[in-house]
Amino acid sequence: MLHPNQFQVNEAWIAFKISDEPIHTELDGDIYFLALMDAASCYILSHVPITAKAAEPTQIESRRLLKEGKSHKKQTPKILFIPTELPVRFLAAEAERIGIDVVRVEEYQLHVFIAEARESFKKFFSGGRGAQ
Fold first, then answer.
1. 126 Cβ neighbours under 8 A, 6+ residues apart
2. What is d(CA 33, CA 130) in angstroms, rounded to the nearest whole number?
3. Per residue in 27-81, pLDDT tens?
């Protein structure tokens, strides 16, 4: 089982959907957010909204996600963990293109990292302050 204390800051990042259920917006329809997190600190480095119809980020969105992640420490990690069930072919290809090893893992192995972020996101949107 993976744990934050196994990593140094910026050694590994995690890409994950921050919510299980899409959020309905009048302008863009149903969307969800893909987040990029540092594995050691559990700090959210970046996020992008993805339409539920698209199911995965585009190449441009993938590049932006990684670029914003890099902007925090001016470097990329060695590893990008991605849940096996998450469709992100452009993100995986872009990460590999810039020298990041992509490692697919079962989502349950990432629970210790992502659970708090998901819970906070869920509370925010169930509290009536979400998208209308």
1. none
2. 13
3. 888 999 999 999 999 999 999 999 888 879 999 999 999 999 999 999 999 999 9
Are 100 and 76 a contacting pair, CB within 8 Å? yes
**Count of domains forming the chain:** 1
DSSP-derived 3-state class of residue 124: helix
Residue 16 belongs to domain spanning: 4-126
Beta strands in 3-127 (DSSP E): 12-17, 23-25, 29-38, 44-51, 79-83, 101-105
Quote the Cα angle for 97-86-84, to 5°: 85
**Dihedral angle sign, alpha carbons of residues 89, 90, 95, 96:** positive
71 belongs to a structural domain: yes
